[in-house]
Design goal:
Helix content is 35%, strand content 8%. It has 27 helices and 14 strands.
Length: 745
C-alpha cells in the first residue's frame, strides 16, 4: 500500500512537470532553456515507522542552447541536423575508429583530446579536472558532440598553446577550433628528434641514422598554417625569416568567421562579397589577390590561384626529396598521403607506392626537415587560404636546402619566395616588433596594416599589433567596390603640407597622396638643425647622434625644396618639385600600385634606350650635356651622376674625419643600423665590436645625413635627380671636399 506522504510527493512532482510544459507551450519568444529527460531511479524515502523503496521520476538535466518556439510542446537541439552531417559527427570515420581493434579498445590519452567528446572536455577541465591535460584514456565509440564546445569551460577558452610551446592569447570562439586544428609538431620537435639521435642539425645534415625518424605534423593543422612563424608549425630554417599570422579582412579572419561551426563548411557567401568571380566553393582554390604578383613556383603563370602555386612547389620539393634519397642516402623514397607512415622505401625503384613497401628508415637530418614540410603542405587542404605564403616559404626553403646536397639541383631560377615590399610579411619592415608585441605609434602608420587607415581618418597614430605586411583594407575603404581612402594633402616632417593633386577629380593625385603618407622619410633640414642647435660647426661633440632620413623617401625627393627632406644649406637655393611629363607625374602613373615596380613599357614610349627595368638608370634628357660629377662622361644616366658624386662625398667625409681632432675614422654599412660606425681598427670595414659613430661634428653630421639620403632613395635619379645632386655637391663643398670639375645643377 502506498504511503500517503509518498502520494503527495508524486502529486507535487507531476504538477511541477505539467507546469513546466505549460510554460514551454505558452512561451511567446524563443529562449535558451535546459533540455531534460525523465528517468526512473530508485529512491529511499523515510516515513513514520518505516522506510520504503520506490521508483521516482527524476529530471536529469543536460544544458544545451535551444530556441523554444510558441506552441512547442517539446524542445529540440538547435543545429543538430547541420552537426549530424558534419565530419565531427561521422561515427564511421577513421578519426573515431582508429583504435577499435586495440587491446584495450580505447582512445589513448595522447589522442583523446581531439578524437572524443570526453577527452576534449577533460582537456579543458569541463569535467572538473585540471585544464590543459587529459587524465585518462577514453572508450571508443565517441564523436565530437554538442557538449564538447557548449559548456562553461570551453566557452571561457581564450588561449591556445601550440606544440612549439607558444601560447596565443586573446582569442574568441576560434580557440575551440584551434585547440585541435594546430598539428602535433613544430620546428622544435623536428630538431629534438635529430638531437635525440645524437646528431647535430647543422654539422650532421647528411648523416644517415636509424634513430632519425619522420615527424608527422598530423591532419588539418590549419591554425599552425594561419599563425605562421608565431606558432612555428612548419620547419623553419636557421637564418630565414617567415610570414607571421595571415590577416584576412576584419570580420572574416577566424575559423568561425569563415567556417560554419556546425557543418564546418566554408561560408561561401561571405567569400563572394569580395571575390565576386566565383560560382561555387570549388573556385576558392583559384583565389589570387593583387598582393601576389610574383611567380612563386616559377612556371610563368602569375594569374593562377595560390593553391596552384603551392602545388607546383610541392611537385618540385618531391622531386628534390627523391633525388636526394637516391643520391645521398642510397635508399629510394616514395610518398603516399593515404598510407601511414606516409614515406616508404621504394624497393623496386619505380617511384610509386606498392603493397609491401616498408616504412622509410634511411633518414638524415636534412631529409627529415624537408619531408616534414612536405607533409605539412599535404595535410592542410585549406592552406592557400589559411597561410599560403607561409607554406610557400617552407616549400621553397626545403627545396633550396636539398639542392645543396644533390648533383642536379631543382631549377629555382624562376621561383620567388617573397612578395613585393608592401606584402613581404616575412621581412624586417613588418617583423621588427614581434618580440615587443606592438608596433609603436611613431612607426605604425607605415609598418602595420591598420596604421595608415587610422591616420587618414583620425590624423593620429597609436600602437598597433604587428601585421603580416599591408593588406587590402590598408588602402581600400570598401572591399566590395575596392574604393580607396581620399587623401587631399599630406603633412611632411618639415612641417609643410603638400599634395600631388593638380586638378579636380585628379584620381592619380589622390591615390599618390596615399603613397607619400609613408614614402616621405622621417626627417628634414629642420630635424637636423634642431639636433645640432648652436654647436660649433667643426667641433666634435659626444651629444650628436646620427639623424636618419629612413627608407624610400621618394615623396620628399619629388617635392625637393618644398619638402626639404634632404639637408639644405642655409646660403644655397634648391629646386622644388620635379614635374615630369603630364601623364607620368605621380607615384601611381609611374609605378604599378601593387607590384610597386616601374611600368617600364610606359617609359620606353619616350626613352628609346629603355627596354627593361635595368635600363632605367641610363635615362638622361637628350639635351642635357652637363657633366655634373666631373668624371668626363656627359652621356651617362642621371643615376650614374648621382652615384659618382655620392662616392666623392663619402671619400671627403672619411678625409674630414681623419683630419678632425677627436674624431674617429668613419665607415658606412647600408645594411646595418645605425649605418655609420667608428672604424676603431682602421681596416675600413665594420667589425662586430665596432659601435655606432659617436664623434660627429655638425658639418660631418649634415654630410652624413645627405649621403644616407642619396643611398635610401634608389629612384632619386628619376624622382628629382638634380635636387639630389645639389645637396650632394653642397655637402662635399661644406666639409672641404674637392668639387673641381663638378657642376652644381
Amino acid at each position: 500500500m502506498t504511503h500517503p506522504k509518498f502520494r503527495r510527493i508524486c502529486l507535487i512532482i507531476g504538477f511541477l512537470l505539467l507546469f513546466s510544459f505549460g510554460i514551454t507551450a505558452c512561451s511567446q519568444e524563443p529562449e535558451t532553456v535546459e533540455v531534460t529527460r525523465i528517468v526512473e531511479v530508485p529512491v529511499e524515502i523515510e516515513v513514520p515507522a518505516e522506510t520504503v523503496e520506490v521508483e521516482v521520476p527524476v529530471e536529469v538535466t543536460r544544458v544545451v542552447e535551444v530556441m523554444v518556439e510558441p506552441d512547442m510542446a517539446m524542445s529540440t537541439v538547435p543545429f543538430e541536423e547541420a552537426w549530424a552531417n558534419s565530419p565531427h559527427a561521422d561515427a564511421e570515420a577513421q578519426a573515431f575508429n582508429h583504435w577499435n581493434e586495440d587491446d584495450p579498445a580505447e582512445i589513448p590519452i595522447a589522442c583523446a583530446k581531439c578524437h572524443s567528446t570526453t577527452g576534449f572536455m577533460d582537456f579543458v577541465g569541463a569535467d572538473g579536472s585540471a585544464f590543459g591535460s587529459v587524465e585518462t584514456a577514453v572508450s571508443v565509440g565517441e564523436v565530437i558532440e554538442c557538449q564538447a564546445c557548449h559548456n562553461d569551460a570551453t566557452v571561457e577558452l581564450a588561449s591556445v598553446t601550440f606544440p612549439s610551446g607558444v601560447e596565443v592569447t586573446g582569442l574568441g570562439p576560434e580557440a575551440r577550433c584551434m585547440t585541435c586544428h594546430q598539428g602535433r609538431a613544430s620546428t622544435a620537435r623536428v630538431n629534438q628528434g635529430i638531437a635525440d639521435a645524437g646528431l647535430d642539425p647543422v654539422a650532421d645534415l647528411d648523416t644517415v641514422s636509424a634513430d632519425v625518424g619522420f615527424t608527422n605534423i598530423h591532419y588539418y593543422p590549419a591554425a599552425a598554417t594561419q599563425y605562421g612563424t608565431i606558432a612555428m608549425g612548419g620547419y623553419e630554417y636557421e637564418g630565414k625569416a617567415y610570414d607571421s599570422k595571415f590577416d584576412h579582412v576584419e570580420g572574416v579572419d577566424t575559423c568561425v568567421d569563415c567556417h560554419n561551426p556546425h557543418t564546418l563548411e566554408v561560408q561561401f557567401d561571405k567569400c563572394t562579397a569580395c571575390h565576386q568571380d566565383m560560382s561555387g566553393p570549388e573556385d576558392l582554390v583559384n583565389i589570387r589577390m593583387p598582393g601576389s604578383l610574383v611567380d612563386y613556383n616559377g612556371n610563368g603563370d602569375i594569374e593562377e590561384g595560390i593553391m596552384a602555386e603551392i602545388t607546383g612547389l610541392q611537385a618540385a620539393l618531391y622531386q628534390a626529396i627523391q633525388a636526394y634519397a637516391n643520391e645521398v642516402t642510397g635508399s629510394p623514397i616514395v610518398y603516399d598521403s593515404a598510407s601511414y607512415p606516409y614515406f616508404f622505401a621504394d624497393v623496386d625503384g619505380n617511384g610509386e607506392m606498392n603493397e609491401g613497401d616498408e616504412r622509410y628508415a634511411s633518414w638524415t637530418p636534412r631529409l627529415a626537415k624537408a619531408a616534414y614540410n612536405y607533409q605539412m603542405s599535404q595535410k592542410d587542404p585549406g592552406e592557400f587560404a589559411h597561410g599560403g605564403k607561409y607554406t610557400i616559404q617552407l616549400l621553397f626553403d626545403s627545396i633550396e636546402d636539398l639542392n645543396q646536397a644533390i648533383s642536379e639541383p631543382v631549377d629555382m631560377s624562376a621561383m620567388r619566395r617573397i612578395d613585393h615590399g608592401h606584402f613581404a610579411g616575412s621581412e624586417a619592415a613588418f617583423r621588427r616588433w614581434d618580440e615587443d608585441g606592438e608596433v609603436p605609434g611613431n612607426c605604425s602608420r607605415c609598418h602595420s596594416a591598420a596604421g595608415l587607415p587610422l591616420f587618414i581618418e583620425q590624423g593620429v597614430t597609436i600602437n598597433q599589433h604587428p601585421s603580416n605586411g599591408l593588406n587590402c583594407a590598408t588602402c581600400h575603404n570598401d572591399l566590395a567596390t575596392f574604393s580607396r581612402y581620399t587623401v587631399e594633402s599630406v603633412p611632411f616632417p618639415s612641417g609643410a603640407t603638400l599634395t600631388l593633386v593638380e586638378a579636380e577629380d585628379d584620381e592619380a593625385g589622390l591615390e599618390s597622396n596615399m603613397c607619400i603618407n609613408c614614402h616621405q622619410g622621417r626627417s628634414s633640414t629642420g630635424t637636423v638643425n634642431q639636433r645640432l642647435g648652436d654647436l660649433p660647426a667643426n667641433d666634435v661633440s659626444d651629444t650628436i647622434r646620427f639623424v636618419n632620413i629612413h627608407y624610400f623617401a621618394a615623396g620628399a625627393t619629388l617635392f625637393g625644396n618644398e619638402a626639404q627632406g634632404a639637408y639644405q644649406y642655409a646660403d644655397k637655393e634648391y629646386l622644388g618639385r620635379n614635374e615630369h611629363v603630364n601623364r607620368f607625374d605621380s607615384c601611381v602613373e609611374c609605378h604599378d600600385t601593387h607590384a610597386l615596380e616601374v611600368v617600364v613599357t610606359e617609359c620606353a614610349d619616350c626613352h628609346e634606350n629603355v627596354v627593361s627595368a635595368a635600363d632605367l638608370v641610363n635615362i638622361r634628357d637628350e639635351d642635357n650635356t652637363t657633366d655634373y660629377d666631373g668624371d668626363g662622361d656627359a652621356a651617362e644616366g642621371m643615376a650614374g651622376e648621382i652615384a659618382t658624386m655620392a662616392e666623392v662625398l663619402y671619400a671627403a667625409m672619411q678625409t674630414y674625419a681623419a683630419n678632425t681632432p677627436g674624431a674617429l675614422p668613419i665607415i658606412y654599412d647600408s645594411h646595418r643600423y645605425p649605418y655609420f660606425f667608428g672604424d676603431a681598427d682602421g681596416n675600413g670595414e665594420v667589425n662586430g665590436e665596432e659601435a655606432g659613430y659617436n664623434t660627429f661634428t655638425p658639418e660631418l653630421l649634415k654630410a652624413a645625413y645627405n649621403y644616407q639620403y642619396a643611398q635610401k632613395d634608389p629612384g632619386a635619379f628619376a624622382h628629382n635627380g638634380k635636387y639630389v645632386l645639389q645637396v650632394l655637391y653642397d655637402s662635399i663643398e661644406a666639409i672641404g671636399g674637392d668639387t673641381a670639375g663638378m657642376t652644381r645643377p
